[in-house]
Design goal:
Strands 19, 20, 23, 24, 27 and 28 form a 6-stranded mixed sheet that branches. The chain has 8 helices and 38 strands. The mean pLDDT is about 90. α2 packs across α3. The radius of gyration is 30 Å and the shape is flat. It is α+β, with helices and mostly antiparallel strands. About 10% of the residues lie in helices and about 30% in strands. It starts with 18 loop residues before the first strand and ends in a 21-residue tail after the last strand.
Length: about 625
């Protein structure tokens, strides 16, 4: 499905045309356009916006806001962001490179990034690949198509003021082939650098070289550039299928780490069941649900080489318990990094038997509360029991009973019998929120989640623990026993508690709202949202809200009111009207008010709402659409 978001970017197709569309880490779409062109951009919520400037532009697909970002002339090509979010751009004709940064006056400017050595610049960007050595990573690359015919690189130095300066270092790639005209590059999933040449003969004034006598029919190629002696992405066999996985993947807080068995299976399209693992929490590997049987190369012999098969390939030995050679040995999928030569048996009978045993252990003391549990319908214990569990249990002893309906805090109730001790709630509270409020007490079969003595579990993010609890142990006092989840209609929306714009899912039935839940958007709120925003829906059905319109002393109707207001405005003199709007109104409503204000030449204002910000999602501005 394709959906038009905006149109009118450019007026012609030349080397100055709109180019190099990049999706930025802030969720904006960036592109550049050169001189001699006119744009007449229009979106569903904004009328035609005419602009003739040679510059970088950006568009927010969430709010449909389009704007000029920073001037760049005459023939800009190249937009990139580095790992820390610093922003860079280049001008094709002039060969100049810039850091795009705030100018201190509410706008952005192009600030010199490095000393120009070549021109034109067809493309530029940051090299970020674990295939290349550390000294290359983070360097700024410039692709030159006339004269030099190669890729230059610059090391980047960052100061405390946010300024960046690039210093030329050893060229990344130099070619003696006069037909090699690099115009763009991408970093592949295998870590290699993929470079195009003669991709567009009019980029960077290359149209003058179309008649170059050195140019032959071999133009228009894609090259894969690798570093000699270093492997590309890891390959691992999953259920007999060779799968390419990145050499490094971001961990829970975005830092690169080697991929795990669980992540490799995900690349292969195989789901490994898990409870304690969460992509945005530290890995602990304590639920054991993700146990997977794997095979490893044999121990090297006296010659230092692993045993080989008859065809010369490395012989793989399925792992077994050292004290029970006939019993397969599994590894924790979420915490075991890939090892060269490893084979993963994700769907083998041995792996299935491990899962059945783990589930049976977890269910030994679990109560049969499904009929009254709020988690029913979205419970991973139910789902995995059906998909991976045994039909019958061999457990004959009495279940261990633990406290039920424990008041952990003002918004959370714990049922300790249902808890499988995945510790997601503990890790979220400690590592994400920074409030080390929860822990494990007691020993053996009686251990349970608890707060510190005389302390209450009360921060502005406690209800996120209900979302990440894979069973019904932690429940929201607000939603507890209110509605079965399969009756709820889910609607995508945005939180209106502050200006962060957290993405949410509204659960409703028969025009009544029952709950807000965070909707994952890593560019805004990730998997989380604050408690005050989550509970900010009660006012919608409040009994003390006005339920009928009142005119001057009596009830009235919408048609009457709208006619009276429009008649007054139609007879009002320009400049005599003031509009006091709420910055909590929707974009559509504020857009219409803006058009009305321009028509009446009216003074506009809104009521500011400020509050205390935190270090996670809540910001000071409690209005959703102040800007």
């Amino acid at each position: 499905m394709k959906e038009r978001l905006l149109h009118g970017l450019d007026s012609a197709d030349t080397h100055h045309a709109a180019n190099n569309i990049v999706y930025g880490p802030d969720g904006y779409i960036y592109y550049q356009r050169g001189v001699f062109h006119v744009s007449n951009v229009e979106t569903p919520w904004q009328g035609p916006q005419r602009d003739t400037a040679s510059a970088m532009y950006r568009f927010n697909p969430r709010t449909f806001r389009f704007q000029k970002h920073a001037n760049n002339s005459p023939n800009p090509h190249g937009i990139s962001f580095d790992y820390w979010g610093y922003h860079y751009a280049t001008d094709g004709t002039g060969g100049r490179a810039y850091q795009v940064r705030p100018d201190g006056k509410g706008n952005f400017k192009m600030q010199e990034l490095l000393k120009k050595t070549v021109r034109p610049v067809c493309s530029s960007g940051i090299l970020s690949s674990d295939h290349f050595p550390e000294e290359n990573n983070g360097n700024f690359l410039i692709l030159n198509a006339i004269g030099f015919l190669g890729i230059k690189q610059y090391t980047m130095a960052y100061d405390d003021e946010g300024d960046v300066w690039g210093t030329e270092t050893k060229d990344l790639l130099v070619s003696g082939d006069r037909n090699f005209r690099p115009t763009d590059f991408e970093i592949g999933g295998d870590g290699a650098l993929y470079v195009s040449d003669w991709q567009n003969v009019i980029v960077g004034h290359m149209q003058h070289n179309v008649r170059d006598p050195n140019r032959n029919k071999n133009h228009g190629r894609i090259y894969r550039v690798t570093y000699e002696g270093r492997e590309l992405s890891k390959h691992v066999k999953v259920d007999g299928q060779s799968i390419a996985v990145p050499r490094m993947t971001p961990n829970w807080d975005g830092k690169p780490e080697p991929p795990t068995v669980l992540q490799a299976c995900k690349h292969a399209g195989i789901e490994i069941p898990h409870y304690c693992y969460h992509p945005k929490l530290p890995v602990v590997g304590n639920c054991r649900m993700c146990l997977v049987h794997v095979g490893m190369p044999g121990r090297p012999g006296p010659d230092g080489k692993s045993p080989l098969n008859e065809d010369g390939t490395t012989k793989i030995f399925p792992m077994q318990l050292p004290y029970e050679p006939e019993t397969p040995r599994g590894v924790i999928g979420c915490a075991t990094a890939l090892i060269p030569g490893m084979e993963i048996y994700a769907s083998s009978p041995e792996t299935k038997e491990m899962r059945e045993s783990v589930l049976e252990s977890l269910l030994i003391n679990h109560p049969l509360d499904c009929s009254i549990c709020d988690q029913a319908g979205e419970c991973k214990l139910q789902e995995y029991s059906y998909d991976h569990g045994q039909a019958e249990s061999e457990f004959e002893e009495f279940k261990v009973h633990k406290p039920k309906a424990v008041d952990l805090g003002p918004r959370i109730t714990l049922d300790a019998e249902r808890c499988i001790l995945c510790t997601r709630c503990i890790r979220f509270t400690k590592d994400v929120v920074g409030d080390d409020a929860l822990g494990i007490v007691n020993r053996g079969g009686y251990i349970t989640i608890s707060t510190f003595p005389s302390e209450s579990f009360d921060n502005n993010y406690t209800l996120n623990t209900v979302d990440i609890c894979p069973v019904g142990a932690l429940t929201s006092d607000d939603f507890r026993f209110q509605m079965r989840v399969w009756f709820l209609k889910e609607t995508k929306s945005l939180c209106t508690d502050c200006g962060s714009g957290c993405n949410v899912t509204i659960g409703s039935r028969e025009n009544k709202m029952y709950r807000y839940e965070p909707r994952q958007n890593d560019a805004v709120n990730g998997h989380w949202m604050c408690d005050s925003g989550r509970l900010n829906y009660k006012w919608i059905g409040r009994e003390d809200r006005l339920s009928s319109l009142r005119g001057l002393g009596s009830k009235t109707t919408w048609p009457t009111v709208l006619k009276d207001v429009s008649d007054h405005l139609a007879n009002a003199d320009n400049g005599s009207v003031a509009i006091v709007a709420s910055a909590r109104q929707t974009n559509e409503e504020l857009h219409l008010l803006t058009k009305l204000a321009k028509h009446l030449d009216a003074v506009t204002d809104s009521v500011p709402r400020k509050g205390k910000a935190d270090n996670l999602l809540m910001i000071e501005d409690r209005n959703t659409n102040t800007t």
